[in-house]
Amino acid sequence: MPAYARRQNSPHADKILGCPADQLGIYVLYQKADGAILITHNLLLDSASLQALQAVKLKYLALLGPELRGKQVTTAAGLAHEDSRIEISGPAGLDLGGELPESIAISMLAECHDKLRGSSAKSLSNYLKYQLWHGSFSRVELD
To answer: Residue 122 domain-assigned?
Structure first.
């Protein structure tokens, strides 16, 4: 469904894919991608994309939209959530408190980065305060 791949819809995107959804797995393998976020705003296109991406080993896969939509996408793809080869995050993103598209994009990329790096996605300042308070902070001497 390349008709959805329009430059005017995503003017700042580095690349607009105009391939059928069933070829996404090939693209991901060729690009050596570790993660994907399905954000087409089209239930059938997202479900076809989800099916195609089950064939590759991604470290992160997320769906845009509320939890109910995620269930609709996985059902349309013929997948039970627990049958997916990879954990599907949905709704995509961390709760950073933003509502604008730019804030939502940052929250999605932050969650993706967290999953790819295996981090905790917790506040560093709170972590350091906890370590200092409980005396388990080990000080590193700088030269």
So the answer is: yes
- As for how many domains the chain has, the answer is 1
In-domain check, residue 90: yes
In a domain, 98, yes or no: yes
71 within 8 A of 41, measured Cβ to Cβ: no
Total number of residues shown for the chain:
143
Q: What is the largest CA-CA distance in the chain?
A: 58
Write the DSSP symbol of residue 86. S
- Enumerate residues 6+ apart whose C-beta is below 8 A from 141: none
Three-class SS state of 63: strand
pTM: 0.76
Question: What CATH code is carried by the domain that includes residue 32?
Answer: 3.40.50.720
Domain of 18 in residue numbering reads as 2-133
Q: CB neighbours (10 Å) of residue 119?
A: 9
Distance CA 33, CA 18 (A): 17
Tens digit of each residue's pLDDT (9 = 90 or more) over 101-128: 889 989 999 999 999 998 887 777 766 6
Burial class (CB in 10 A: 0-12, 13-18, 19+), 11: exposed
